[in-house]
Automatic annotation (TrEMBL):
Residues of the PIN domain: 1-115
Residue ranges constituting the AAA+ ATPase domain according to the UniProt record: 259-384
SMART domains: AAA (SM00382), PINc (SM00670)
Region ranges (Disordered): 520-556
Keywords for this protein: RNA-binding
Residue ranges, compositional bias (Basic and acidic residues): 520-529
Organism annotation: Natronosalvus rutilus
Gene Ontology MF annotations: RNA binding
Protein name: PINc/VapC family ATPase
Origin: domain of life: Archaea
Family assignment from sequence similarity: In the N-terminal section; belongs to the PINc/VapC protein family.
UniProt xrefs under PROSITE patterns: KH_TYPE_1
Length: 629
């Protein structure tokens, strides 16, 4: 008896099983080189199927050494063109042709291969794919009622996060580390279980990484070379809540049912965002709303009546296009993180779909600020009208978001009226923040009682803009002091008075009109806060042109940076001063003031006046420096 196995039956291990059962005892097993090439390619890509198949070939070699079969390798390795068309059946055709030439029995566990081979007149032995049935997984033994996640890795003692939401502890849960064989067995059992279980599927399969959903468990399996060892991370929800369990439940329910909303559910990792999102999804579904989800990976625990969608063709925007045809009333978008995610969220919301997004944020306002720069500022309240912040499993803060054309809090001139995003505390009804543009920059201003501001980013920006304007005129040292939100005093060298004021006051009037602030120009000798020599004002910052100033007035040393120009932004990396306001200078000359992000960078939108000045300085190879304000 001569048999030719294809790749599928070698991966399944069914050939060695048939030999042990006596079915192929004494047979000549002719393994096509095309099968070896496929298995080798899969193993090189880090796929389990490749390693499974190579393991089967080793078992066949052992049977041949024992004299139970004759083993030979036949045919030629497929060409690069044939391997490139493997998905179109080129390799399968090569294997079938070998079976025909050898007049051998063609063995496969691929139903399509079997049907094609029979149609071509080959003798076929179809072996149904063998799937290991799994009731429970071995890794489930590491879970108890308070375990949210289990973390296993080769040569490391098993760890777990245990406790209650908001009070989780990462701790050892065993005495001895796991060896590689045990980890490999765990990983294979998880994948087999996902393939077999009704509530299981493989969410992601890439070389070195698999993400599996097995009933209530989301399991990530990492392998070398992607990871430095086999690692398994299994996560499951430890509580299931109803919206009635949360504070402000009645108001939130009324708000959600009133009409389709744009909601961001925010909070730190492990705070209970997804748990709250699940309760909202169930509540909406129970009140006659068609609810869908967009997730990658699919992680929310919802009933079967709520369809969970993932990426279509590797892209969430394609999923959004499909959902717009389905027309859900509400869509839960789990993990809105990247710019593309925010753009898809905004597009669906503006199309009239109620959207609920889950966002990582350390403060309630941060969730809204993540939209800034990704969505046009004036459209934010149309995209998101409610922000819910979850802390330790509880609804900590709820913000109402709307737009009003007004003079921003702290400013008084009527000609400064502009669209302002008002962020109001849902519980107290008091304004908490205002977001608006000020001199081409977007600022977020926290409000105190009565809507007044402390000396804030707006004050610093206003001061920096005045300094920039006057320094472009004056040759000497410039000191600016803000007297109120609409009035400032500028102290300059006596020789610069006439230059700054201009003929008939025309020049300073132009500056006032541009900035919307009354400016009083005086000499340094009139500065009541004057200290030190050369007119150095103690209340202001040293001007860049004051070459003869004292040491106390010297410009603080800055950090030389290398900006990166992308299609949409000029990005300035900053090693320090994260979250602080800094000046950006070119060749020692002031360009603009900005706040360094927590990620350590400043982004300037291309096409703006600031970006044009910055790009011009870069083109002229002027050193770009970041100086603390």
């Amino acid at each position: 008896m001569n048999v030719v196995p294809d790749t599928s039956v070698v991966i399944d291990g069914r050939v060695s099983a048939a030999i042990e059962d006596g079915q192929f005892e004494g047979a000549t097993v002719s393994v096509p080189e095309a099968v070896v090439a496929e298995l080798e390619a899969q193993a090189n890509d880090g796929l389990d199927s490749g390693w499974d198949g190579l393991g089967e070939l080793k078992r066949l070699a052992e049977f041949a050494d024992e004299g139970r079969i004759d083993l030979e390798y036949v045919g030629e390795r497929p060409s690069a063109i044939e391997r490139g068309h493997a998905a179109e059946g080129e390799i399968d055709a090569v294997i079938r042709d070998l079976a025909e030439d050898l007049e051998a029995t063609f063995v496969t566990s691929d139903i399509v291969q079997a049907e094609v081979a029979q149609a071509k007149g080959l003798e076929v032995d179809y072996l149904s794919p063998e799937v290991r049935r799994v009731g429970t997984l071995a890794i489930e033994e590491y879970f108890d009622d308070q375990t949210m996640s289990v973390h296993l890795k080769t040569d490391v003692v098993p760890m777990a996060k245990r406790g209650e939401i908001g009070d989780m502890h990462y701790q050892e849960i065993a005495d001895e580390p796991l060896d590689e064989d045990t980890m490999d067995e765990y990983a294979r059992e998880v994948v087999d279980g996902a393939r077999e279980a009704t509530g299981g599927f493989i969410e992601l399969s890439e070389p070195g990484m698999k993400i599996v959903q097995f009933r209530d468990y989301r399991i990530a399996i990492a392998r070398p070379p992607f990871a430095d060892g086999i690692e398994i991370t299994a996560v499951r929800p430890i509580v299931q809540t109803d919206i009635e369990d949360y504070e402000h439940a009645d108001e939130l329910k009324e708000r959600l049912l009133e009409h389709q909303r744009g909601v961001l559910i925010s909070g730190s990792p492990g705070a209970g965002k997804s748990t709250f999102a699940q309760s909202v999804a169930r509540y909406l579904n129970d009140h006659d709303y068609a609810v869908k989800t967009m997730e990658k990976p699919r992680d929310l625990q919802v009933g079967p009546e709520i369809t969970q969608y993932t990426e279509l063709g590797g892209r969430m925007d394609k999923t959004a296009d499909a959902l717009l045809m389905v027309r859900p009333d509400y869509t839960i978008y789990d993990e809105v993180r990247k710019t593309d995610d925010f753009e898809v969220f905004a597009d669906m919301r503006l199309a009239g779909v109620g959207m609920i997004g889950v966002v990582h944020a350390t403060r309630p306002i941060d969730a809204l600020q993540r939209l800034v720069g990704r969505v046009e500022l004036g459209m934010i309240p149309q995209v998101v009208d409610t922000v819910v912040y979850i802390d330790a499993g509880e609804v900590s803060t709820v913000y109402d978001v709307k737009t009003e054309v007004k003079v921003p809090a702290g400013l008084t001139e009527e000609d400064l009226a502009r669209p302002v995003i008002q962020v109001t505390d849902f519980q107290t009804g008091k304004p908490a923040y205002e977001i608006y543009t000020f001199n081409r920059q977007v600022v977020t201003v926290p409000l105190e009682d009565g809507g007044e501001t402390t000396e804030s980013g707006v004050d610093r920006i206003a001061k920096s803009e005045i300094e920039r304007e006057i320094r472009s005129i004056a040759r000497g040292y410039v000191d600016v002091q803000l007297k109120s939100q609409n009035r400032a005093v500028v102290y300059v060298e006596e020789d610069d008075i006439s230059t700054v004021i201009g003929k008939g006051g025309g020049r300073i009037t132009d500056v006032e009109n541009r900035l919307g602030i009354d400016i009083d120009v005086r000499t340094h000798d009139e500065n009541p806060h004057k200290s030190g020599s050369n007119g150095g004002g103690g209340g202001g910052r040293s001007g860049h042109g004051n070459a003869g100033g004292s040491a106390s007035n010297a410009q603080p040393a800055g950090q030389i940076v290398t900006p990166e120009i992308t299609s949409r932004h000029v990005i300035i990396p900053v090693d320090s001063n994260h979250g602080e306001t800094v000046e950006v200078q070119a060749g020692g000359e002031y360009l603009f003031t900005a706040t360094v992000s927590r990620g350590g960078e400043i982004q300037v939108s291309r096409g703006s006046a600031i970006a044009d000045d910055l790009e011009d300085a870069i083109d002229r190879k002027r050193p770009i420096t970041v100086v603390p304000s």
